[in-house]
Amino acid sequence: MSKIPRERMKGMGKRSGKIGRASQQPAAEPLNIAHGALPSRDVILRFIADHPQKASKRELAKAFGLKGDSRVELKHLLRELEQEGMLQKTRKSLIRPGALPPVTVLDITTRDKDGELIGRPAEWPDDQGVAPAVAIRQSTSPAGRNGKGKAPVAGMGDRILAKIFPAADRGGPAYTARIIKILDKRRGALLGVFKDAPGGAGRLLPIDRRGEEMVIDPDYKGEAKDGDLVEVEVARLGRFGLARAKVLSIVGSVASEKAISMIAIHAHGIPYIFPPAVVAEADDAKPATMSHREDWRDVPLITIDPADAKDHDDAVYAETDPSPDNPDGVIVTVAIADVSYYVRPSSPLDREALKRGNSVYFPDRVVPMLPERISNDLCSLREGQDRPALAVRMVFSKEGRKIGHTFHHVMMKSAAKLSYQQAQAAIDDKPDDKTGPLLEPILKPLWNAYRIMTRGRERRQPLELDMPERKILLKPDGTVDRVFVPPRLDAHKLIEEMMIQANVSAAETLEKKRQVLIYRIHDGPTLAKQEVLREFLATLGISLAKGGNMRANNFNMILAKADDTPHQTMVNEMVLRSQSQAIYSPENIGHFGLNLMKYAHFTSPIRRYADLIVHRALVGSLGFGEGGITPDEEAALDDIAAEISTFERRAMAAERETVDRLIAHHLAGRVGEEFEGRVSGVTKSGLFVTLPDYGADGFVPISTLGTDYFIYDEAHQALSGEKTGLGYRLGDSVTVKLAEAIPLAGALRFEMISEGRKMPTAVRSFHKAGRRDASRARKKAGTRPPRGRR
């Protein structure tokens, strides 16, 4: 379980030599603007499109020679373009909406008619349509840039980090790309479902909608049986007919959960097998020594984790501050496993960890970032065993203000391994044999420190969304037993707040040392998203102030107004949708959701590569001995941040899709049954309905809603009938019938049973005005009205 909630800061080192070099594209047509004069909107938009690598406010001012008041005017003009949706701010530049950032992770998926490689972004938002194609420029020189080393040469199926340029030839892909480096050489194996065919042969049904069927000859099917999920390689491609394939391995039956998570692993290209060199390095690793370390083995640090956790990367301890200058203050100690001691820069372990970026968690398995010898043994803070750690001691006043902190390179020994439920039960006067002796000396001081730290959190006022996280409990055979929402305990919140403060301390220390690092940044919501939310809230009688200076507390006030109302869940979801996505970056803009100006991930180096980088930066800048960050790493932080941000999105998508497939499989035998649900999304083509008891989403096509003509109203998040005025809004409770379940696609289709309710007057007025305008336009154009969706 993640101990830091999922979140939707100014590097000081030199830029990577891989980024920011001049494009080899032909020069764009000159812009006839007097040097020092503020360019027009069109000229700015054209410049950004033609020079994405120079699309920051600073570079724009430099390119057009703007100084003084002209720079201020430029700032206002760029803000206007953002508000109108003409520009979109990324971590350090401006791009046109839907455009690719200057450095992007691409998957090479096909070739054009001339045989040139074509790639597409590894991750692309669903709401932006089809991902753009990118023509890959292969180097024709035997040497790399600057004449050093060998230029990377990519092939079909490879994942690459690439520098993006607008294409000079508008007749093909919109972009071209220069390979910075190859992230992953994909195997030629494909995944599909084996189906028996006449004559002892078989067919391979693809798991990807874009895939094609293949024939599997009897001699090539091995032990595969009908319904098995198999890995195959292409045996022969012909000019006519289907390709032929050979079964390499049998993953298992598509009815099993193991197969379902394997589909997501394969579909997203997640590395799940450690190469022999990586396993060998992990197996050969020796326990850390006391060199350059303080002996903290008598400090009663304890781990508090999920009951089924196999690795323990953080331990905590709290005590009253004895200083007379801090009456009733506390000292909170957080110790984090010292992964940097075992995983050194550029080693096989390090290269594989970067390729993975983070651990990926499925209901039945974990795809770890590091081999078990490291993650579950040498770096796991096991009870009663010596383990190396980086620890931070943080001093808080009784008001919850952090007075100071210090970092330490230590050898520790965990005093106890507890689950969240154990620790909480002890505090709630239900201790067991293990927690009873720990209650007074360890657990109560921890909870006292948590109460004090909560005062500081309340004053800071981070974004407080109430979005229950559902968990899937599996049966022994890997199928779904039940879906439930685990209780949110104070024990969870205690660990979360202590980890957040440790992360803040890491960022503060590294900034003070002028050490480059990777921040965890979270931009505020765009003005366009704010406007969509504002219009929606207005339909509920809730106001949202205008202006670009929004803070997390503004959204908390909105959430408070919706508490204990029928709209509570709906408002929480809409506020969540309005938020930006958190990413990693060596450039600091702060963390909007947590309302923090300095924030870096430090507390989970076993499962996140960003934390490992921060550990190395601390080891190097504080003189803690071996395992510090190297100059090459510092120069490559832009690349690393881009990669691990992409890999994080990849993991989230794979985890979400696996849950969708599991639930679809679980409900496949219940087609025709009715379920209670809630409208969780409204689109022009229909309604998304969530079944709260299962955490599953399904779709109701607009064509099945009834005989009326249904009109989509984005502002009110509603579909309403033109004649009857009856319809459905986001958040409505409804009854639906399961019409279809497609397990491999993770898709459910529903039919609406509930009748629509009378739409508010504002919605009906909006629709009537819209229909009048449309009717007038049709009469003027001499056209007939379109066929309604009925």
From TrEMBL:
This protein's source sits in the domain of life called Bacteria
InterPro entries cross-referenced by the UniProt entry: CSD2, NA-bd_OB-fold, RNase_II/R, RNase_II/R_CS, RNase_II/RNase_R, RNase_R, RNR_Ribonuclease, S1_domain
Q: Which residues form the S1 motif domain?
A: 672-740
- Coiled-coil positions are none
Gene Ontology biological process: mRNA catabolic process
* CDD domains in the cross-refs: S1_RNase_R
MF-aspect GO terms: exoribonuclease II activity; RNA binding
Keywords tagged on the record: Cytoplasm, Exonuclease, Hydrolase, Nuclease, RNA-binding
Please note every region of biased composition (Basic and acidic residues). 1-10
Region (Disordered) location: 1-25, 763-790
Cellular component (GO) terms are: cytosol
Q: Any idea of its EC number?
A: 3.1.13.1
Claim: Nuclease is one of the keywords in the record: yes
Q: Give a single Pfam family match.
A: RNB
User: Which ranges are annotated Basic residues under compositional bias?
Assistant: 777-790
Listed under catalytic activity are:
Exonucleolytic cleavage in the 3'- to 5'-direction to yield nucleoside 5'-phosphates
| Function of the protein | 3'-5' exoribonuclease that releases 5'-nucleoside monophosphates and is involved in maturation of structured RNAs.
Xref: PANTHER family:
DIS3-LIKE EXONUCLEASE 2, RIBONUCLEASE
Name the family: Belongs to the RNR ribonuclease family. RNase R subfamily.
HAMAP family under this entry?
RNase_R
Question: What's the name of the protein?
Answer: Ribonuclease R
Q: Which organism is it from?
A: Rhizobium altiplani
